[in-house]
Amino acid sequence: xxxxxxxxxxxxxxxxxxxxxxxxxxxxxxxxxxxxxxxxxxxxxxxxxxxxxxxxxxxxxxxxxxxxxxxxxxxxxxxxxxxxxxxxxxxxxxxxxxxxxxxxxxxxxxxxxxxxxxxxxxxxxxxxxxxxxxxxxxxxxxxxxxxxxxxxxxxxxxxxxxxxxxxxxxxxxxxxxxxxxxxxxxxxxxxxxxxxxxxxxxxxxxxxxxxxxxxxxxxxxxxxxxxxxxxxxxxxxxxxxxxxxxxxxxxxxxxxxxxxxxxxxxxxxxxxxxxxxxxxxxxxxxxxxxxxxxxxxxxxxxx
Length: 303
Known about the structure:
Elements (H helix, E strand, L loop, with lengths): L37 E3 L9 E4 L8 E5 L12 E4 L6 E2 L4 E11 L5 E10 L5 E10 L3 E10 L1 E2 L7 E9 L12 E12 L2 H4 L7 E2 L10 E8 L3 E8 L5 E10 L2 E8 L6 E11 L2 H7 L6 E9 L2
Antiparallel strand pairs: 1-4, 2-3, 3-12, 4-11, 5-11, 6-9, 6-12, 7-8, 7-11, 8-10, 13-14, 14-17, 15-16, 15-18, 18-19
């Protein structure tokens, strides 16, 4: 795939003043086979599956991507990625969402994929936010999408990478020859309030309970920088569960629960926090398909 950053392809996502936040966001400029300031999956002269189209939402042109076959076992998916080499472009604010206009003609349940990442310190730095969508809905006329960012830190990003592609009907499934999209007029929408996000936790953490030692109740605090499936349980020294305090999905934030040890004998117990972050960017850090983060604290019950 010409010029595309292989590290960013693992993500499963103009010439006009109105769309000037994103370079060539209306796909008006095509100096060569690719739109200017964009990398594509084109590998001319072997195949070209991202082309210039005159069926535009506004202006005179749009980008068209189509799944093609060159005789191999796997069709070639179309991919558009921002930056001349797919490395993205500079940003200096926190957009609330990304919008754009598209048509989509899927075959056998294929989906139109949108993946956007905001970084601090370039593409190898800190992931500040992600926006992602995969929609199988067919649209015969231009339809606007609006995909919100999920922020993980309070940083102001300096780099944005946008990726559009056609993906299969399910995770890991192959896309199908003949699926195509038209894409035009990308833009950022709104501004995410940094001050409003400063209060959000910056890391997963299980705090030490207070008071400790305690009798018969104690407060247990934990924090989540992103939403996740949470289990918070208390075990005895033999590993037996004596109390389930939290078992369900929680949004990002700081939480406090009460552990009432009435009916339990004096001794040492262990509080165990297990979190499965909902966003794949966090799951990959822990390299597990089960509980992605585990922390424990010792509790001392004295009666």
